[in-house]
Amino acid sequence: MAHAFGEIAERLRRSTVEVRLRGANAGGSGVIATPDGTIVTNAHVARGDAAVRLWDGRELPARLVARDPRRDLATLQVQASGLPAAAFGDSSALRVGELVIAIGNPLGFIGALTTGVVHALGKLPGFGGQNWVLADVRLAPGNSGGPLADANGRVIGINTMIVQGLGAAVPGNAVSAFLRRGASGFSLGVTVRPVELEDRRFGLLVLGVEKGSPADTASLWAGDILIGAGGRAFRSIDDLHLLLDGALEGANGPIHLQFLRGDRAATREVAIRLARAWAAAA
Question: Quick check: is 44 catalytic?
Fold first, then answer.
């Protein structure tokens, strides 16, 4: 049994890559999805063209093909063939208590492995309507974008973040759908974090704005606090996700976002015309 587990772990390591943005010190992980060089990772790991290091030490340039910030998924393409692609399992068949394995490159340790069990499945309050796989695996910076696999080595999630000490992964079925169709929906182009204002109102602190995104074109800045849209106050991050989902249902005009900036004494408004959530690198 130990021998079989070792073989499974080694296959996963060979299907896991290190991803580094050009000129950046921080990096993450990725999963080889096809033998001809398609790699899936997190959108917050792949914000542009990158360098990818394979299990055998080869380092290859990687072109950004598609990116969906809302689901935090991205695909990269390297020029290679015969790569050890991972096998993807059916994440809808997962059960709480099932053994899972995470592989990544945390804190400079290449191909680090950790094991745990599935803790919960489903939605996370404050993180929109998407489903997640929560597992008690020990993750650290550098694990993002790496595989969460079942006991047979089939990828059933892409590790994304830590929530209250638990690893949260995008379910494998959502990853497989993304690989088939690319990104869908609309994107604002911001990274946000929920905050409570001094007057106890809810806000979304803008941590970053993607260059060339609708938010960037509309001159939103990191440090701005989004407080509502169309005159309706935000009460959770789900409200922003619902706003973007509404764009899929035929809202062609700009959205009007209310936000605070600087001393936060005055509410400002900006009109933003949304863009599709996929991006191809130039």
Answer: yes
